[in-house]
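Fold sample X.
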Amino acid sequence: MTTPESQQIKAPSAADTVVRDILRGLYEGRYVAGQRLAEPDLIARYGVSRSTVREAIKRLAAQGVVETRQHQGARIPSVSTAEARNILLIAEMIVGLAARQSAQAIDTPGSREALTEALAAVETASHAQDKFEVVLARNRFHRTLARIARSPVLENTLSNLHVHLVRNRLVMTPEQRLKSYRAIAAAILAGDAETAETRARAHVRQMIDRLDDSG
């Protein structure tokens, strides 16, 4: 059966690959705050054209992952604790809204299958050696909620938030995340919009609490 998720799947472009690896590098520490992203270095690293690198940088800049200045190229900006907290506060509201609206629309054809597949991806990633796979599965789970809700605005907003959440190293363990997502999915599948939103917001609130504790 065709689902809201499978309808959107397409092969990644060369620019997609560069963007994803830079995001992975942020998560793994290969790219750090203050680091310059010189075009010749990226062309050599990824074996792509200058236009592909420029497209990737343009997309990362639009999402706030890099800063670009004339004659100075691109660099990865620092994110203050206060800014990281604001990002998480926005995520709390947006993820909660996505959960509520997806619960309200869960009986739309294909929606239950899409959510079940997204949760299965989180479960698979939780046991993977590559922990960045957990990040990708998390993004897919959130994206699926927005698609079930039939809200392109929610999906675009969540996509922009995801790139910032990658930089937040104060994250739950894969096991904690899986338990939380199972609870969110159960409420959505039950069509319980209020509980779905409450659990989704509590999920993000855990990261906010950890950030506050670290300060």
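Fold sample Y, listed below.
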Amino acid sequence: MEFSKLEGTGNDFIIVDNRDGKFEKFVGKHPVSFAVRKICNRKRGIGADGLILIEDSGRATVKWRFYNSDGSTAEMCGNGARCAARFAYERGIAPKNLTIETGAGVISAEVKGRSVKVKLTPPRDFLFDLKVEGLNLHFVNTGVPHAVVFVDRVDAVDVEGVGRKVRFSEFFSPAGVNVNFAEVRADRVVVRTYERGVEGETLACGTGSVASALVAARLFSIPSPVEVEVRSGERLRVYFDAEMKEVYLEGETTWIADGNLREEFIGGA
């Protein structure tokens, strides 16, 4: 099965052109979640934060099915959307200005070489000053649910330990939540994210960067665009209008490799 691997500011994804159903043929009798976990495994597979299937859509230029590395599905992924848009454009599946049907709704994207800018679904469900697991945090859904915790020094946070407690807290049960730790500096917001579905800290999270930027803008009167530095050290830009109904995420992508998965890889459970 042919695949490509792309990354956006440290979030890496396996992408398959599945318009002909090659993924289902490759997976065969095995559950999709099993195949995704195997492919995304960093020691015995290709390794990735997620897997994206590009398919035909009746509502947009293309449709995707997005899977986290643990085999679960996600409605939206900002960096995944940027990588998927570049893949679809460079593979000749879509023009440089395209729309993608996601679980969160239809989003639009513009491919500008390695840089890709996506317009996300409008953020919703803003909640401020919640008390969860002894923390003061804020909440917003940017396509998927995100908690934002502001800290004095983001590099001093136990992202794995504290993030896991909040992610699995009763307050956000049963769906859980992604957890962002954000430090506001003079020229940028620095963010580290515990991602639901990956179940650990990732080098970047697009929707988490958007959530952190929007909450910071509301609480600290930061104007658009907000520069967000992620764990990889790279930066994303978050644009928004005064009412935060139109929100864009922009940043670089890298096309890492193209390859073929052999049948023997998926053969045993």
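Sample Y note: The first strand starts at residue 2 and ends at 8.
Also: The radius of gyration is 18 Å.
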